[in-house]
Amino acid sequence: MLRRCATLVAVIVAMALALPAALAGEYLVTAAKPNNLYVMDMKAREIVRSYTIPGDGTAPGTIVTSPDGRIAYVVMSYRRIVGIDLMTGKTVFETDMARSGDERVINMGLAVSADGTELYSYEVPARIGLDRYEVLPVRLSVYPAMGGNFAEPLRVFSNLPRRIHMLITKADGSAIYALGWDIYTIDPQTGEIMDTFPLRNWTRENASPPDLLNFWPMEEQSGLFSTLVYYQRTDLPPDDMAAYPTDVLTLDVATGEIKFTTLQIPPQVIFTGTVSPDRKNLYTIYTKLMKLDMETGALIKEVPVDHSYYQVNVSGDGKEVYVGGTMCDVSIYDAETLDKLGAVTTPGCVDLATAAMRMIDLDLEE
Q1: Digit-coded pLDDT (tens) for 257-311
Q2: Euclidean distance between CA atoms 197 and 150, whole angstroms
């Protein structure tokens, strides 16, 4: 009898081991005014988790997530950072970044270390007096990622340039890329600037200094951070529309390689562009959704959208495109045809404003 039981147990164990491991689901994480954090199942077209972000602040902005997708760090009104466990809703990190009562600090860049243990914050402080503001040196603060309430930095570096507005962690954790007037490669242990890629200070022939606007990190699906770059061709007359090209800049977060592709489109305002998981296409958004070829810059297709949107992201399988960042909906489009498939709307139609949209893989039933 014991031998039979042992044999049965062995068979059950063998069958269990032969079964494929349960796959984590893919979700979109975003936030809305005044202090709402959402986890959306885009395939099911529904919100599956909703949390209240504690403390002061009415405008969620930058969102970065831990490598395992479990923790979302949200910048509130540029002045506070709050980390929320998406499985439980528990606050695991919170800081207002100020070092003293007369100091005010705004965050202009946030990233998580590759191993998920540290949080990098680019901070712009000022001392508030009775009759003046005293500008203080900018700093890069490194916090413990699970620092709890009133988190204090482990390291602070004050040798960085101003005008940085985006931090991106290199895939192997050896560097932080800081996007500003130029792109800086920073050692997260020492704060040393190891390399500088000229952007505002480029020397491209027949090209003015470029301009760009991007506050939304969305490199998780392709491993390429992408941003639109605008400039003027000085070899053409200023009344010629061809004198105002738009490029997409891509930064490979694994290798650090930076590339430019000139888009074959007329001059226009585009807020963000995100690369497909296979790196073949670029999807851009503002008043219309466009699909472009990443190799040639050719426009493949464009469609009007219901209203202006600031952000675009893509599903991990590359089949759906998500646009959001304004009003109260994240709309869903077919990545091949750009047909609208549906939308997820916030309860009470609360405003998503400029809160980031990040894609994560997480087993919420764990």
Answers
A1: 999 999 999 999 999 999 999 999 999 999 999 999 999 999 999 999 999 999 9
A2: 35
C-alpha closest to that of 322 among 353, 351, 359: 359
Asked if 218 contacts 313 with a C-beta cutoff of 8 angstroms, the reply is: yes
Beta bridge partner(s), residue 233: 207
- Mean pLDDT score of the chain, rounded to an integer? 92
Q: Distances in Å between the alpha carbon of 301 and those of 162, 228, 261, 313, 337?
A: 38, 18, 17, 17, 8
DSSP 105-141: EEEEEEEE-TTSSEEEEEEEEEEE-SS-EEE---EEE
Tokens of 149: 């309430």
Which two three-digit tokens encode residue 130? 């009775």
State how far Cα 161 lies from the chain centre. Answer: 22
Indicate the residue type of 280.
K
How far is CA 283 from its chain centroid?
15
Q: Are 181 and 201 in contact (CB under 8 A)?
A: yes
Mapped onto helix, strand or coil, the DSSP state of residue 232 is coil
Question: CA-based Rg of the chain, rounded to a whole angstrom?
Answer: 22
Measured CA to CA in angstroms, residue 113 lies from 28, 64, 142, 145, 245 at distances of 20, 11, 10, 9, 35
Integer angstrom CA distances of residue 254 from 169, 170, 177, 220:
9, 6, 11, 11
Q: What is the CATH number of domain 202-343?
A: 2.130.10.10
CATH 2.30.30.90 holds for 55-198: no
Residue span(s) of the chain under CATH 2.130.10.10 come to 55-198, 202-343
Question: Which residues are bridge partners to 290 per DSSP?
Answer: 284, 302
| Residue in the block written with tokens 């990443």 | 294
Going by C-alpha positions, the residue among 71, 26, 111, 53 that lies closest to residue 350 is 53
